[in-house]
Amino acid sequence: MTAPLTTSLTQELAAAVDALRRVTVRVQASGAAASGAGVLWDPGGGDDSRGLVITNAHVATRAQATIQFSDGAVAQGRVVARDRRRDLAALEFEVRTAAGVAQVRGAPLLRVGELVIAIGHPGELTGAATLGIIHTTGGDRARRTPPWIRADLRLAPGFSGGPLAAGGRLIGINTMMHGGLALAVPAALVQSWLRRAQAPAAA
Question: Which of 12, 41, 119, 186 is the most exposed place for a label (fewest CB within 10 A)?
């Protein structure tokens, strides 16, 4: 039974990578030499003319950025929210053609040892993939560290702002390597941050 199981897992991983690559974009801040990745996100509100990309604040360093989609199409995005402490940024762009958005995993809770996939654009490569496992989740209350997802996989430059996924669904936004581990902002934290950022200001 080993060979069929191995073949099945290989096919599932390849299918998951294909799906993730379609919702992963390249983000290059105006005037910046380096670029990073971003994730197509559901903008909510029912406005089909507006698209949304979530990336890292250290990727979207300017007010404007070029967004390149997996099919090679390009759009101009503007930063509508940025949080340097959480290393998150949201960019809006005008939708010209239909594009999918990342499917965020709600349940079950993450478990240490789960297989995870990250997608990014290192150097001149587009849609590169790396595989690893969940090392630990959550922060350290005693040390007051933030609730990172830590994964035992390699993030090369160009993976920042891209998706971290488990079971074919988004679980976090990749940020950096630290202590030999990849750190990602949990998707639930991204969602709560985005709701606050999009909330109308009090009168």
Answer: 12
Amino acid at 111: R
* Contact status, residue 163 vs residue 149, Cβ threshold 8 Å: no
Task: Please tell me whether the overall predicted TM-score, pTM, comes out greater than 0.85 for this model.
Answer: yes
Find the Cα–Cα–Cα–Cα dihedral 183, 138, 129, 154, rounded to 10°.
Answer: 40
**Cβ partners under 8 Å of residue 105, min gap 6:** 165, 166, 167, 169, 170, 171, 187
**Per-residue tokens: 147:** 């609730």
Please give the distance of CA 128 from its chain centroid, rounded to a whole number. Answer: 13
How many CB atoms are located within 10 Å of the residue 95 CB? 15
pLDDT in tens, 128-182: 999 999 998 875 554 455 689 999 999 999 999 999 999 889 999 999 999 999 9
Cβ atoms 182, 153 nearer than 8 A: yes
In what helix (H) or strand (E) does residue 177 lie, and over which residues does it extend? strand 169-178
State mean pLDDT over 101-126.
91
Residue type, 97: T
The half-sphere exposure of 54 on its side-chain side, counting CA atoms within 13 A, is 33
Q: Distance between CA atoms of 183 and 124, rounded to whole angstroms?
A: 23
Question: Distance between CA atoms of 23 and 53, rounded to whole angstroms?
Answer: 9
- In one-letter notation, the amino acid at residue 96 is R
